[in-house]
Amino acid sequence: MAESAPPAPAKTQLPQKSVQELVINGEELPENYIRKDGDRGILDVPLVEIPVVDLGLLASSSTSGEELEKLRSALSSWGCFQATNHGVTLPFLDKVREVTKQFFALPMEEKRKYAREAGGIEGYGNDMILSEQQILDWTDRLYLTLNPEDQRKLKYWPEIPEDFRQVYSLQTWDILHEYTIKLEMITAAVLKAMARSLNLEDNCFLDQCGKRPTVTARFNYYPKCPRPELVHGVKPHADASAITVLLQDEVEGLQLQKDDQWFRVPTIPQAFLINAGDLVEIMSNGIFKSPVHKVVTNSERERTSLAVFYLAEPEEEIQPVDSLVTESRPRLYKKVKNYVDIYFQYYQLGKRPIEAVKI
Ligand code: OGA
Ligand code: NI
């Protein structure tokens, strides 16, 4: 692995302004946000009905057969599914959506208290500028480590909005803590069901991720953009995770690529959109797809989302499960650890990181 790794990225520096400030100030689109690819008419692509999987049915042995097959089929074709009946109530999901919106609506001085530091990853900010040619995404983010708990950097966890605290007698990070615990259960159940759907041991994907898997949260804010066709909300990418759990608001924007065609992903208020990431594609020896996706902005409405990435423990080795390597399905991926490091290096070079581990 080491000899094929690309050079380390240039020293990081913070961009001058958040995307939100560019919008508030009514500035011209800065050159470094304008896409150079020729892809136009981007908002006008077909809507796709992503398969809906009932997690409650998956859990019970009498009803799981058909649902497992739905899960397997969704992940091997689209690489994602809409998860319903997951045990988190709609009012709680709405609360998480609300606090996300309220955070990004805070005055800039307040948000800057949580600003990412130069060279760091966690905190509030927009794209790190790593090279002069880089095209920036039309988004501001708050990026936090949720697990392992002793790695949380609470100085970046917002303490407001106040009304949120009054209603629930909790601080923002208490809501986030509760959300983390709920997602721990959901991600474990989904990773087990994924294994079962391939007739594997329940824990074979979970075990590879280690005893202390890293779980991170990315709160995404996509301000309205006067010229949405000229920018990316988020550039096309696949996730570095084993799986990602996305909570969308009611504004569409996510698009998914399948067979070189882009599709709009609908938003379902009570559902999580769960997608396979590169680690699951590797562990399943390519049976489950880590889908390429992107976010498109619009000029009418801002959009927020919350992506939670279930990653492996950095030092754990990830590789295709033995029994999924057969004569008719040869091994597609090498062993890999510290995938997140490889991921960012390749991503910045505009390459698909999973290429780095293909045999
Ligand atoms: C991501 C991502 C999608 C969205 O954060 O990796 O793909 O809808 N987000 O914000
Ligand atoms: Ni993503």
TrEMBL record:
**Keywords of this protein's UniProt record, alphabetized?**
Iron, Metal-binding, Oxidoreductase, Vitamin C
**Domain of life from the UniProt record:** Eukaryota
Pfam families named among the record's database cross-references: 2OG-FeII_Oxy (PF03171), DIOX_N (PF14226)
Q: Its Gene Ontology molecular function terms?
A: L-ascorbic acid binding; metal ion binding; oxidoreductase activity
Q: Domain (Fe2OG dioxygenase): give its ranges.
A: 213-314
Kindly give the PROSITE patterns that the UniProt entry links to this protein. FE2OG_OXY
Quote the InterPro entries the UniProt record gives.
DIOX_N (IPR026992), IPNS-like_FE2OG_OXY (IPR044861), IPNS-like_sf (IPR027443), Oxoglu/Fe-dep_dioxygenase_dom (IPR005123), Plant_2OG-oxidoreductases (IPR050295)
Record's family?
Belongs to the iron/ascorbate-dependent oxidoreductase family.
Protein's UniProt name: Protein SRG1
Where is the organism placed in the taxonomic lineage, from the top? Eukaryota, Viridiplantae, Streptophyta, Embryophyta, Tracheophyta
